[in-house]
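Ticket #4471: structure export looks truncated?
Reporter: QA, pipeline team
Priority: medium

Steps to reproduce: submit the single chain below to the structure queue and open the exported record.
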Amino acid sequence: MASKQHGERIEELRKDIETGVKELRNSGTWQRYLDFMGRFHQYSWNNILLMLMQSNGNSSLVAGFRQWQTRGRVVRKGEHGMKIFGFSTRTVKDEDGNPQLDENGDPIQKVWYPILTVFDVSQTDPIDKETDPIEQMKPSELEGADALGLVGRMTAWLESKHWRVGHESM
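Actual output as written to the record:
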């Protein structure tokens, strides 16, 4: 029975993806998708679309429940996560529990896509408010026109690669 429910849920998610693709024909939706996708570069096209639809484009940083804990944050009680497809492999085994081997003697791996739940950072709180890891991740702004001499070093490197570099006031 659980397998049938899982199959039905997968079919629902696939239909959500299909609906999302159809909505991308609207240029405003396409732009919203591209903006959203820029925040989730490590996710597949399907998962980005699922997160976009389930969060109305309002997610900025997502992770699973346990991932948030290892990163010093906890998901608030009562929060509902977004469903996405995961990726996993498992070794195919025979009736005795021994790995089945291919013609080269390597264990046969089966790929599967479990449904996972992820939460946006806005659904979490820091475990230790004094040392919030999200605040520590924010880069500090450069001070001055070129505080670290990056412009000169980058210019020299580009010119060493035969690029022509010009500088103008903005």
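Status: closed, not a bug. The export was complete when the record was re-opened. Leaving a note from the reviewer for reference: The radius of gyration is 23 Å.
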